[in-house]
Automatic annotation (TrEMBL), chains A, B:
In the C-terminal section; belongs to the NAD synthetase family. It comes from Actinomadura macrotermitis. GO terms for cellular component: cytoplasm. Pathway: Cofactor biosynthesis; NAD(+) biosynthesis; NAD(+) from deamido-NAD(+) (L-Gln route): step 1/1. One of its GO terms (molecular function) is glutaminase activity. InterPro entries: C-N_Hydrolase (IPR003010), C-N_Hydrolase_sf (IPR036526), Gln-dep_NAD_synthase (IPR014445), NAD/GMP_synthase (IPR022310), NAD_synthase (IPR003694), Nitrilase/CN_hydratase_CS (IPR000132), Rossmann-like_a/b/a_fold (IPR014729). The gene is nadE_1. This is Glutamine-dependent NAD(+) synthetase.
């Protein structure tokens, strides 16, 4: 057996910020060196951020990434870190690229490199390109076809990238053949509810298949709709969990491993291997330091406790919101506070993400606003200490109605649009990003006003069905005084109980209730989940126990609301389908689920 | 040689409308039979419309398509058309589908089938799946691996689908081996400027490679941002053009071909062939009628004259607008008419698409509107006979400003948002779809107001740079009295000359001119085209002759406007990058083109 101390740098890069991301690599490599690590690994596409989408097709961008990689290698050496092998993701391109219909321009690669001694030691790239869910990688990358195996202190360390772990065949399938002692996998794997369990099982299974320990370093942070949750792990060759980093926060996970020493007979050089997916992977062996280290005392194992389900969701919303605001150059947000539960939760998430002092709420009562709406909103402002302002909209509504006669829904929508116009005016005047309060039950059924309550820059709860909005509000109120790192230290429950308890209403017409237009959320939400996330058809929904008439009605509502959803701001993804890039349905679409035979 | 009369049904299906599309198949098959055709071919995915995107992943949808195919086969026979072979596109699935990470759920196929005698004779599917530009087919389809060759009146007719023509290898590459006399290609190929020339050359090249005549049937019609232009063609084995259908209109192209008779020694059955792309294609031979027909008199060749460049663009805008409105269930549109060129052209396109009686314009003068704006708009209304209404917004602006103090851009945006609120109110009240007036130069640089002038349901000129807006306006004025099928028969020029001649202004502040904020459009537009469509980086732009300071400024404007563009309504695509699905850039993106070395 040979000992190795590895450091997984679970950090938060920004898409396109090559300079800032390079700074992160140097800073966290220094921390790793200070912790005595023999190797530090960064996430997939660390240098460029992830996902870069069509930036990969821009020659100047790929070239800048290639140069930045070599610069960071030199800089590490210049700053005394040249002896520490640093493994990082970046975008590269195939040296010889064919211009062919159907092939991404410039043949970009989702690449990984070992940096050492001021130079790039070995390069490889992701083999399996995910092109499902939120991923469009067949569009922008070509396949890698190499498994680097670097001998470090007598341990053969193989590297692979993210999806290569998820799909059968490819580099991971030849790791066993290569006789590696450790498989290092660089990831940018976005959060989704319960995905952490799936990932850990996957790591354990692949470790057993590869017959070696597996270290999985994941990105952390928000990028548009995606939230990378970290949760980096190390498992042994038997699949047992050895070390685990916390979720939703940057972290250096340092662990001492004892793994089989490399076979000295395995010489440097390139050997082709059948990748069991119809392709050939070249095993590319390099030697940095052939001999195992003398025995040294090991550090205690670090095993962060995974968060429970609601804490995970809340953590994703806070991190996703904070990073969207910050990485887009904003410092403060504006929320239209109605007195209802949605805007109350959004305000709370914003206060947790940015601190109450960076949260500005505006209350815009109309002739239909109930008294409790204003007083409940004021109570929330008091509890959280956010900035608040009241702007009555009655005079504006009157001015429109003096010129244009509107009835029913058109008149209801007018109020919502006037409110949005005030939000956007204040946003433009003061530089706050507008947070949108809509939830997934509303988005799904189209129960919102285009350019009204759906306006804004980011929608923190767009992927929560209404019942989850309530659950999460109760959960947050129960965590006053908690030391979870993503919560602001409010001393009491931040959301007034009356706001959680009241019956939901849009308050756009006299005595209006959500239940006038929609079934009770306890009935609606499971149906929406089955239709949207599980993609069940009409018959399957009825077979699953949903009321046939309701199925008919809800399918129709969901199908007709596609245009509104397209215009909705992005928001953190927490389910398999958040109405973002993960579900792509034509706007012009006459398909209606057929009636049962 | 053997004779064959083929009919290409260049028709306009609607996504998801399986019943309506089946009706089209029957109706146009009858027309083909009446024209004495021996075979009729419909476009790719005729039965489902195209593109269906994630509907392909919905089991109930694929099943409905499979059933609809068998029903239409029976119905054709029931209605006396069973003897006419009908080739049509639809969505099918692989019989045995593996559930595997990375594979589309249910293994859907972009399929084609021959219908004959009330039954489905043979099925095949697209082999090459485009996953670039607007296409995401690796996401939703698996590859087909078969080339059907059906002997009809002694001619071996092979069939392939769309992309199989564009990429090397696959079914088209084994057509020569199969010894086919005719290759029939089913397409849903969207319009792009100058693409018709590329397509014709491609057909000619593939015909020569396959050593046989090639019949290319394309879809026509609008689907969200895509406009299928028709332009179906038939070329001989030497690549010579034999027949051509008109663009932007439904058409039955009937042509008599004389092609080599099939080799009687080639027996029915399946033979594998090397597809020259690392895969194997099965040649699947069937015999419907082994012997050539007795000689019969041929019809005259039909060769539609292709439209010139501006006519093509205008035709695409009219058809795209008409179909978006109609297929989404609207009958009328509303346009905010400012007196400027953009809204004038949009109104004209709408009048051409839907007839002036279905076009409602609203003029919303503010304190900054010039007198000529109102009078020019009124002159346009008079020339076109559209419905018009004036709604002054001064009172509404005052009501907002009484409650919220706004300056500079915030105050300018307020006016644009108030106008949009009126548009949307009238839209909700009267059921008109709002057409958005923004052009590509504005979209690119962010010179528009979120939830203001950018609001609406469809943006007919979103893919035209401003200089093209002028060119097209002049072109349209010059076509008064033309018999082009997509123009309304206005007797004089529909756009007042003063609107074309005036200096552009948003009229949101006193004496404002576009040139206060933007370079002259004659300078800006070519730079935008090079940056957005050609994807040139900073250095390449300067090398191409653009002013370095302007390059810096414009790149920054374009990069920062990504969020606004995401919220923009769809509009007909006429270039390679219309800021829709064809250009995918993260919102959160710190990438700035590097300065020259």
């Amino acid at each position: 057996m040979a000992q190795l101390r590895i450091a997984l740098a679970q950090v938060n890069p920004t898409v396109g910020d090559l300079g800032g991301n390079a700074d992160l690599i140097v800073a966290w490599s220094r921390r790793a060196a200070e912790a005595g690590a023999h190797l530090v690994a960064f996430p997939e596409m660390m240098l460029t951020g992830y996902p870069i989408e069509d930036l990969a097709l821009r020659a100047s961008f790929v070239q800048a990434s290639q140069r930045a990689l070599e610069q960071v290698a030199r800089r590490l050496a210049d700053e005394g870190l040249g002896d520490l092998p640093v493994v990082t993701g970046y975008v590269d391109r195939r040296a010889v690229s064919l211009v062919r219909t159907g092939q991404p321009a410039g043949s970009p690669l989702d690449a990984a490199a070992w940096l050492h001694g001021g130079e790039v030691l070995v390069r490889s790239a992701k083999h399996h390109l995910p092109n499902y869910g939120v991923f469009d990688e067949s569009r922008v990358f070509v396949r890698g076809d190499r498994l680097p195996v670097v001998r470090l202190h007598g341990v053969d360390v193989a590297t692979a990238v993210c999806e290569d772990l998820w799909q059968d065949g490819g580099p991971v399938s030849v790791t066993d053949t290569a006789g590696a002692g450790l498989l290092l996998v660089l990831n940018a794997s976005p959060y989704e509810r319960n995905k952490d369990d799936v990932r850990l099982e996957l790591c354990a299974r692949r470790a057993r298949e590869a017959g070696c320990a597996l270290a999985y370093v994941n990105m952390v942070g928000g990028q548009d709709e995606l939230v990378f949750d970290g949760d980096s792990v190390i498992v042994g060759a038997d699949g047992d969990l050895l070390a685990r980093a916390p979720q939703f926060t940057e972290h250096l996970l340092v662990a001492d491993l004892a793994v089989p020493a490399a076979d000295p007979a395995a010489r440097p050089g390139r050997v082709p291997a059948d990748a069991l997916d119809g392709t050939t992977i070249t095993i590319d062996r390099r030697v940095l330091s052939p001999d195992p280290l003398p025995a040294y005392p090991v550090r205690p194992q670090e095993l962060a406790e995974p968060l429970d389900d609601l804490a995970e969701v809340y953590g994703a919303l806070v991190l996703g919101t904070r990073d969207y605001v910050r990485k887009n150059g904003f410092r403060s947000v504006l929320v239209g506070l109605s007195g209802g539960i949605d805007s109350a939760l959004v305000t709370t998430i914003a206060a947790d993400a940015l601190g109450p002092d960076n949260v500005h709420v505006v209350m815009l009562p109309s002739r239909y606003s109930s008294e409790h709406s204003v007083s409940d909103a004021e109570e929330l402002v008091k509890r959280q200490g956010v900035h608040a302002r009241i702007v009555p909209i009655r005079g504006m509504v009157d001015a429109f109605e003096a010129e244009v006669e509107l009835h029913g829904l058109a008149a209801e929508n007018l109020q919502a649009r006037i409110r949005a116009t005030v939000w956007m005016g204040l946003s433009n005047e003061h530089g706050h990003l507008v947070l949108t309060g809509g939830n997934k039950s509303e988005l799904a059924t189209g129960y919102s006003t285009l350019y009204g309550d759906s306006a804004g820059g980011f929608a923190p709860i767009k992927d929560l069905v209404k019942t989850l909005v309530w659950d999460l509000s109760r959960w947050r109120n129960g965590r006053a005084g908690s030391d979870l790192p993503f919560l602001h230290p409010f001393t009491g429950p931040p959301i007034p109980e009356a706001i959680i308890a009241k019956e939901p209403s849009a308050e756009l017409s006299p005595g209006q209730r959500d239940s006038d237009s929609l079934p009770p959320y306890e009935v609606l939400d499971p149906l929406l989940t089955d239709y949207v996330e599980r993609d069940l058809g009409r018959d399957a929904l009825i077979a699953a126990g949903h009321d046939p008439a309701l199925v008919e009605r809800v399918i129709r509502l969901v199908d007709l609301a596609e245009y509104k959803r397209r215009q909705y701001p992005p928001g953190p993804k927490v389910t398999s389908k958040n109405f973002g890039r993960d579900r792509r349905v034509p706007i012009t679409n006459r398909w209606r689920e057929p009636a049962a035979d």
